[in-house]
Write the structure tokens for this entry.
Amino acid sequence: MNKIIVTLISLFTSLSAFADSVVKSNPWSLSTYLPPEDISVNGHLIDYLFNYTTYFNIFFFVLVCLGLIGFSWMYRAKNHPKPYYTYGNKKSHILVATAIGLFVFLTVDMNITRISNNDYVGVFTNWPNAKKEQVLKVEVLAQQWAWSFRYAGKDGVFNTEDDVVSLNDLRLPTGKKIVFQLQSKDVIHSFFIANTRRKVDAIPGRITRMWFELKDGTAGDYEIACAEMCGTYHYRMAAKLKVYPQEKFDRWMTEAEEKAKQENDADNAELFWGWPWSSNSNVSMMKK
Amino acid sequence: MAFYEQHIHPKPTTFLSKYIFSFDHKMIARQFIWYGILGLGLGGMMAMLIRWTLSNPGVPFPVLGNLFFPMSGGVVPPDSYAMLFTMHGTIMIFYAITPLLIGAFGNFCIPLMIGARDMAFPAMNMLSFWLAVLSAIILVASLFVPLGAAASGWTAYPTLSTLIGSPGVGQTLWAIAIFVLGISSTMGAINYITTVITLRAPGMGYFDMPLTVWGLWLTAILNAIFLPVLGAGGLLLVFDRVFGTQFFLAGAAATNGTGDPVLFQHVFWIFGHPEVYILILPAWGMVSDILSFFSRKPAFGAKATALAMTSITILSTLVYGHHMYTTQMSPLLTQTFMTLTMTISIPSAIFFANWLGTLWRGSIRFTSPMVFSMGVVFVFGLGGLTGLYLGTVTTDLYLHDTYFVVGHFHYTMAASVLLGSFAAIYFWFPKMFGKMLCEKLALTHFWITFLGLNGVFMGMMMVGYGGMHRRIYNPFIYEYLEKLIPLNALITTAALLMGIGQIPFLINLVSTLFFKKEMAPDNPWEVGTLEWTIPTPAPHYNFKNIPVVKCGPHEFGNPNLTTGRDFQYQTEELVKG
């Protein structure tokens, strides 16, 4: 009897919590079903390509549906008892089928391939040159089930005792290119920031990279997730992303560097999980 | 065309030789059907547990929860959740869809539709089934070992699937089960390929084969080439886990630093992408046939359809890299894989043109196989088009490993293949078991399933686009996903609906098999392919005299026909004006 009451109560509370969430989620607003706010300078490229593909997809899918439903209605046996005897190998038939295939390929496929490739080569893998412009470098170490972040500190060199290190707490400035290098300690993880439309895997034994720049006026709190299945608590492998305007970030960084110098214990081997910043992404690392 | 004539062996008389270790392809097909339906039930039950957890995290699963998870009071715990989605994927792909479409209908249709008395290697056929049973036993046993079943997803990426991430013996058993199943499927594949090449009835050229046989044949070719690759990958994984090798280990745990976890991804997807087509090709073939059968006109551009299937088969082996964009692939490779992936849409577009061309100016009979086949055209349209986003490298950077991917591959691999399997079951059931399934129940089954699966998989794509990533036990610890709670609840409701939709099917199956007295006529659908020229249910050794094929499989609506029928059997000379 007690069990039943407990179950009923838990069911009831979950139901009311659910009703609450429905109201909060604003189910009739379109924005509920869109990706979270884009805070990166180049995220719009991905959104644009998504929408571009969607328009074509809707066009072609409507065509398929019109064919399916329209023909079903027009040519149902009752209505159309004498079928048209053809193998579909007349010149006109072959021409139409080929034209459809080529039309899809040339209008949709080749366009999205071209746009996507231009974006990928020209933007997403066009790594900022630290010699020519100001770049913030961050090392990310993924492990079950947390993210560690490392800034180079005052000396600009990674894996030294003045590095600023944090756990599940990433702070980034707006208006500056940020380059990440990622490593994993144990299994494959994936560094996913939905607000920048980007993710990259963190793989044991190799360094992967990602870069983006955050838009001005996007200061605030966001979330980082692990997108690649990494074990039981995969779903809890979340980190906070705090975006600061440039000056505020610089102030925070100066403070953090001071604090790091005072508090980092140079004798603690655990502190030095970083690696020398590498210019080649596929260097095998962590050989001990 | 047949290379040799198969002898007629005496009918098996003992229970064991007739029902258990049968060499008869029809009996093996029936065995595979039950095996597949059992797999569907098990995998579907797991899907229910997964969906319940996603929309009601922390709430005990109703009724059965306490039975399955007594330790947590009926709540699915996070580690069991990981085992559930791993097993759901594995079972549905390898133990439900594969046995149903390839095992059951491959076995049943190929010899009957090409006019053969049995498979080329009947003993190997029997062995193939019993190895599949052995594999299933190993897999199910892995649910009961300490630390539980495999929990690294059906893709089993190392290093999560090595001892670093999964210390339990469950993952080893998983790899062994897949390896054994690989042997079973390879045997089946070799059998199918040989049968189609050597045992086609006299007069039957490759383009006189029904498209169903084309689909099954191409599937068998892919199976024979690529399942050994998976087997090799699985074996290396077992070595890493049991014998201390380091093929896939890297990072802190690799003491000699020679392995690479990404190597497994390459091996897995070289197999894994063709696997998608392994599952869908038979369904494509069947749909192409059934659309023609019930439009009462020849399949539009049948030759082009067969060639398009062949070119997809070839292309499918060249595109696997699009599963690995986020491993930081070189732009040179992403460019290549992206372009190759996109070329698949040319043959796909030709398919759709031909399917719609078949319906065009037909005389459509809305029987259950027809309705299910039209459902396949619909869901495969959605599944195929949404693949564009994932084959495109930049949109994939956002969508990879989100529920968008889950929705997409369920549309292609689950929705269309499932509807295709049902179309096949309803269509060939009379020839298989000698009785017709109830049409009314079948149509009820269709509409509930169709509504349910669109709700589930469309919903999944929507939450994925909203940013919800895959394989998470409780999405709502993320603030930006909280707005998706109601949508997740909706998906769960739709999944439940889809589950309930299978009840009419089961009722239909049981009542027809055990209670229906009335036998089906020899050719209830009025179709001219070879299996409908023989009595129902198909007799021992199928064809008393090997038929001679004189025309194509889709001869409907020929205006010169004077027989009173609107179709021609393949054994009849084509009537010309």
